[in-house]
Amino acid sequence: MTVHSFEQHFEDKIDNEISIEPRDWMPDDYRKTLIRQISQHAHSEIVGMLPEGNWITRAPSLRRKAVLLAKVQDEGGHGLYLYSAAETLGISRDEMLEQLHSGKAKYSSIFNYPSLTWADMGAIGWLVDGAAIMNQVPLCRTSYGPYARAMVRVCKEESFHQRQGFEIMLTLSKGTEVQKKLAQDALNRWWWPSIMMFGPSDDNSPNTEKSMRWRIKRFTNDELRQKFIDVTVEQTKILGLEVPDKDLKWNEERGHYDFGKINWDEFWNVVKGNGPCNKQRLETRKKAWEDGAWVRDAAMAHAEKRKNKKAAKAA
Amino acid sequence: MSQTTDLIKYTLQIADNALVLGHRLSEWCGHGPILEQDIAITNIALDHLGQARSLYQYAAELFNNLPLVEKNDLFASAVLQQKINAEEPLDEDDLAYLRDGWDFRNVQLVEQPNKDWAYTVARSFFYDSFNFHFYTALQNSADKTLAAIAEKSLKEVAYHLRWSSEWVVRLGDGTAESHERMQTAINDYWMYTGELVTMSEADTAALNTGNGVAATALKQKWDEQVNAVLQEATLARPEDGWMQQGGKDGRHTEHLGYILAELQFMQRAYPNMEW
């Protein structure tokens, strides 16, 4: 086959919704886009362990502590599936981590916000995992097979997390005055960053068009954002909390909520590294990696010794 | 002192070990040396936490059935005294979050800090080597609840022991650096191992009623376990020497106070609320 026919074959598969598998021919750009997206996603899971991990030792009850610990552990598991999916595209986990640590690879900006109170465990589960699900459910049908399959597992667990987060918020909102205040304060701080999680608006998103054509992405950022707002505002009513947006209003004609102007200046600044916790998060990840170097070396050296012993025995 | 009071103390001794070690291990979550091990150590932390919860629930149940004068005698913390005098029943969270350090009965070993992977592994290895034989014996407890908890936990504890033993071997027989770090950790935490197999008052009382296990009788099995793994790991066994004591009777190292300050913060700042 010529390059042209390889490409035709690839395009046909995409058009016919046949998944692309690791050994299939794929355009370089498709491969690069996927590596960027999947590794970014994996990094988000790993860095995302930190703001919630921040409350494991201070959770207010043993049950909440166990649930939170299990949740953060799940995120580690998601990181693992996603790194494995990205590895099928010809990049190693170490290379991806190197890109994370050098700042070359990005992760979801939401994790550069601090988790300040226990209520943030509710808000993160409800809003951040909620937004993640909106983004991720369509990815279960994304064109690259290993990514789609990883996402099926991730989505199942994420929707469980989202319900747990909402349940924390519900308990707080039914609680004492100060608990309601904690819940409202958390909503105030996490609402806008969650809305921004869908990325820049469509007229400002350089990767969207190509990703849509290759069926890596199935909906645009703005479509998903609107869907999230429509669903979440209704949930806020159940909680009896107030969305911190004075321009939020149901638009009968559109059948959607209109909402206020997003502070893109803040968004781009956090992306560029000026968020409240960018430095701290990256330093924490780097420290874990560097402090663990001698442990990984030891594990490798020991495995090597075992192999040699086995070989010597066999000889 | 009634038999029930003794049983509560004994149950708390086991529960506090599980909670405090689980707390320490959970501090690694998100900071492990490699993702797979981050997940593994969190899993182990969750096992300990689960065991602690079963045991606290049982201790609370026993406590709630005590006559008031015996209740007043058990825990010193002012918040708990208030609850007791108001005749409110206690639950697992009251026991974990409202007792002060001197009413915690865990061994000093489990409250020692993580420091690095080698210290964390050494602490777990010493504890797991005890805990596996302890739970094995506790399955025969005359107390049906303790026996059932032991039986249910044993599979988890067997895995903990395998995990920590493998890491002792891997680090001991890994690189020169890991060998040195592992040996140092073994040496430094050695003085906290004696307490595991020393009988406290609660241990003796539980043994006499058939509810408990003879901790001293586990010493030989602990030695065999530890010696075998250290040898495979090419590590030296330290001299037995002077051993620290007191945790089981509520005398702790300075570390426990900080663990509790963190663990109990929410319940202290926002008391009497549902979370």
Key descriptive features of the protein:
heterodimer; A: 315 residues; mainly alpha; two-stranded antiparallel sheet; 13 helices; 68% helix; B: 275 residues; Ferritin; 65% helix
Q: What is the multimeric organization of the chains shown?
A: heterodimer
Q: Structural class, from secondary structure content of chain A?
A: mainly alpha
CA(first)-CA(last) distance of chain B:
35 Å
Q: Estimate the helix proportion of chain A, in percent.
A: 55-70%
Uncertain regions spanning at least 5 consecutive residues of chain A: none
> Number of DSSP strands of chain A?
2
Q: DSSP strand (E) fraction of chain A?
A: under 5%
Look up the CATH topology of chain B. Answer: Ferritin
The value of Rg of chain A in angstroms is: 22 Å
Q: Output the CATH homologous superfamily of chain B.
A: Ferritin, core subunit, four-helix bundle
Average pLDDT taken over every residue of chain A: 95
Taking all Cα atoms into account, the compactness measure Rg of chain B is 19 Å
What's a quick, concise take on this entry?
By secondary structure, chain A is an all-alpha fold.
How does this model look, in words?
The complex is a heterodimer of chains A (315) and B (275). Chain A has 315 residues and is mainly alpha-helical. In chain A, helix 4 runs antiparallel to helix 7 and helix 6 runs antiparallel to helix 7. The radius of gyration of chain A is 22 Å and the shape is globular. Chain B is an all-alpha fold. Chain B has one domain: Ferritin, core subunit, four-helix bundle (Ferritin), CATH 1.20.1260.10. The model of chain B has no long low-confidence stretch (mean pLDDT 97). Chains A and B meet through helix 3, helix 4, helix 12 and helix 13 of A and helix 2, helix 5, helix 8, helix 9 and helix 13 of B.
